[in-house]
Design goal:
By secondary structure, the chain is of the alpha/beta class. It is about 40% helix and about 15% strand. It has 12 helices and 9 strands. The strands form 2 sheets. Strands 1-2-3-4-7-8-9 form a 7-stranded parallel sheet. The longest helix has 22 residues, at about 180-205.
């Protein structure tokens, strides 16, 4: 399996780390990027894509991996409007393919892409890290959202999956997701993938799903990609070479019952983007 080192970059004006900074890191060949100003369901226009890809290329980096083209909630919930948002997603795939993109990392997590209780947790060497303490989450999703969004405002950053427009409608979102059981969410994921696979083949772009972060249900919301068994179900459900994984060791190892080293060596681990 050939591998190369990439670096997640949140874009000009949205990331305190610049491409010039990343250029100083030995071995980095790829920038993993996105249009973080775009809301889920919106079409990524060609001129918007070109501007970012040209900027990345100007520093000598490849720009073949995108994280994330976020999936609209109507698709995850399974509303009648999902078909139009799926068509929009297909157009995003087509537009990205014109600029050399080969992999889209995405997730299918309800409401929240990821959860943390501390974005700047101090570590022994003086650095800070993202941190999650389960007993601080409990059932108060609004308190956690207010905490995350306070940093969005303070640092003028857009966090993927935490778009202010969506977070302002948390109660509505939770109400909309209330009838969505885990099995229904699996069905909706399958519907989405089967609909876009022909476009992925046409454009030679692989869809690499990110594991749920953290890998267990939160706030009564179902989570799907949580362990080796669920990964196997996911890949078997839509058995297609363009249906792939973003294997996030951080997310999976949050549950001590998961052994990422074993998962990597299982027969289903064929097309992977590592995080």
């Amino acid at each position: 399996m050939s591998m190369k080192m990439g670096w997640r970059w949140y874009g000009e004006g949205n990331d305190p780390i610049t491409l010039a900074d990343i250029k100083q890191i030995p071995g980095v060949e790829e920038i993993v990027w996105a249009l973080h100003s775009k809301m889920p369901g919106e079409i990524w226009e060609e001129d918007e894509i070109k501007a970012v890809v040209d900027q990345i290329h100007s520093y000598g980096f490849d720009a073949t991996i995108v994280e994330s083209v976020n999936v609209h909630d109507d698709i995850k919930i399974g509303l009648p409007t999902r078909d139009q948002y799926i068509e929009n997603y297909k157009q995003c795939i087509r537009n990205l393919s014109k600029f050399g993109v080969k992999t889209i990392c995405y997730n299918f997590m309800p409401v929240f892409d990821w959860t943390r209780t501390d974005l700047f947790h101090p570590i022994g060497d003086g650095s800070t890290a993202l941190f999650y303490q389960k007993d601080l989450i409990k059932d108060d999703y609004k308190a956690m959202a207010d905490y995350i969004m306070s940093f969005t405002e303070k640092y003028h950053m857009t966090f993927p999956g935490w778009e202010p427009e969506r977070m302002a409608k948390l109660d509505e979102l939770f109400k909309a997701y209330a009838p969505v059981t885990k099995e229904k969410l699996w069905d909706n994921l399958k519907y989405f993938l089967e609909a876009i696979m022909p476009t992925c083949h046409e454009c030679d772009i692989k869809m690499a799903i990110h594991q749920d972060d953290p890998p267990w249900d939160i706030f009564g919301l179902p989570r799907l990609l949580v362990n080796a068994e669920s990964i196997d179900r996911f890949l078997s459900m839509v058995d297609d070479p363009y249906n792939c994984l973003t294997l996030c060791s951080g997310s999976m190892n949050a549950n001590p019952n998961n052994n990422v080293a074993e998962i990597v060596r299982t027969p289903f681990a064929i097309s992977l983007v590592f995080e």
